[in-house]
């Protein structure tokens, strides 16, 4: 499909998300606002916010709402971030406790301005959740930390059940889609996490429809398996605005099913693949499904 389709807003019938509404949605929104928290659901314009908040789940985004990078696929604002809020981990934990989550997902903007990339705040958030809701499993979706092993170890040492870092796209598309990131550095982060603690499940995600070939997607999946990545998500790229990278094409549900089958055959413990799949979509089912 052409770039024109990406601009026109004409989506195929299988790109349809649940509209945000209902009492549960309102309660989650109120909780997030009251505790002065950010969610990737809101900041990244996630199409599943209606479904997830209706189910009283949310992906909390720590370290502010401004990213130091400017990826061409992401709706999160870029610029100069605010100072780190050291009380944020406790507020996130209180929100997780209030929602009585069985699985909490914590992500962040990229903070290249911080010496450890914000790793210490990730660790503090994990520990705060453990203290207030010991039975809750924890997943962290982390930036690449500029490849720092010391920063990564701070997070691994706090022992989240899942450590997620998204590869996002195929190697060839990095200069266009993720110009400040490095494909090999992202793979190395996942490899290092597994070597630091083999009991932690590692996870990554790919968005499709930005100009890659199916063969390149499969090669990226192979690269992830080569670093012993356990869980994979694959979803359709949806253009946040005309200033972002155009949509090259829409994958069909059948193509997503084929990629899921291929991933399972490669040895992934779980593959979540579909048009509206995002990193934390059905995250609780993923961690408990691999036990």
What does this structure look like?
- By secondary structure, the protein is α/β, with parallel strands linked by helices.
- It has a single domain (3-9, 16-279), classed as Aldolase class I (TIM Barrel, Alpha-Beta Barrel), CATH 3.20.20.70.
- The chain is built from twelve helices and ten strands.
- The chain has helices at residues 3-8, 23-34, 40-43, 49-54, 88-99, 119-132, 149-157, 174-177, 183-196, 214-226, 253-266, 283-289; strands spanning 38-39, 59-62, 66-67, 77-78, 103-108, 137-141, 162-164, 201-208, 231-236, 270-273.
- The strands form two sheets. It has an eight-stranded mixed β-sheet with strand order 1-2-5-6-7-8-9-10, sandwiched between helices. It has a two-stranded parallel sheet with strand order 3-4.
- The termini are far apart.
Secondary structure layout:
Layout: H1 3-8, H2 23-34, E1 38-39, H3 40-43, H4 49-54, E2 59-62, E3 66-67, E4 77-78, H5 88-99, E5 103-108, H6 119-132, E6 137-141, H7 149-157, E7 162-164, H8 174-177, H9 183-196, E8 201-208, H10 214-226, E9 231-236, H11 253-266, E10 270-273, H12 283-289
Parallel strand pairs: 2-5, 3-4, 5-6, 6-7, 7-8, 8-9, 9-10
Antiparallel strand pairs: 1-2
Helix pairs in contact: 5-6, 6-7, 7-9, 10-11
């Amino acid at each position: 499909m052409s770039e024109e389709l990406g601009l026109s807003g004409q989506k195929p019938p299988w790109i349809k998300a649940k509209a945000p509404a209902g009492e549960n949605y309102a309660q989650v929104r109120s909780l997030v606002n009251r505790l002065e928290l950010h969610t990737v659901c809101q900041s990244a314009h996630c199409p599943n916010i209606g479904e997830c908040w209706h189910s009283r789940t949310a992906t909390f985004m720590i370290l502010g709402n401004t990213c130091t990078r400017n990826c061409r696929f992401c709706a999160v604002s870029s610029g100069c971030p605010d100072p780190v809020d050291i009380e944020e981990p406790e507020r996130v934990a209180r929100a997780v406790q209030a929602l009585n989550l069985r699985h909490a997902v914590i992500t962040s903007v990229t903070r290249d301005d911080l010496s450890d990339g914000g790793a210490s705040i990730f660790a503090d958030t994990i520990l705060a959740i453990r203290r207030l809701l010991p039975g809750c499993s924890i997943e962290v979706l982390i930036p690449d930390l500029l490849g720092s092993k010391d920063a990564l170890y701070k997070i691994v040492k706090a022992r989240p059940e899942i450590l997620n870092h998204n590869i996002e796209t195929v190697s060839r598309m990095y200069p266009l889609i993720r110009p400040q990131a490095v494909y090999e550095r992202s793979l190395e982060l996942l490899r290092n996490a597994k070597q630091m603690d083999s009991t932690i499940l590692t996870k990554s995600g790919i968005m499709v429809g930005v100009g890659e070939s199916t063969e390149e997607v499969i090669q990226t999946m192979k690269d992830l398996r080569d670093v012993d990545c356990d869980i994979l998500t694959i979803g359709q790229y949806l253009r946040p605005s005309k200033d972002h990278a155009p949509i090259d094409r829409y994958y069909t549900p059948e193509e997503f099913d084929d990629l899921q089958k291929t991933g399972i055959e490669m040895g992934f413990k779980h593959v979540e693949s579909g048009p509206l799949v995002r990193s934390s979509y059905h995250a609780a089912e993923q961690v408990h499904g691999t036990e």
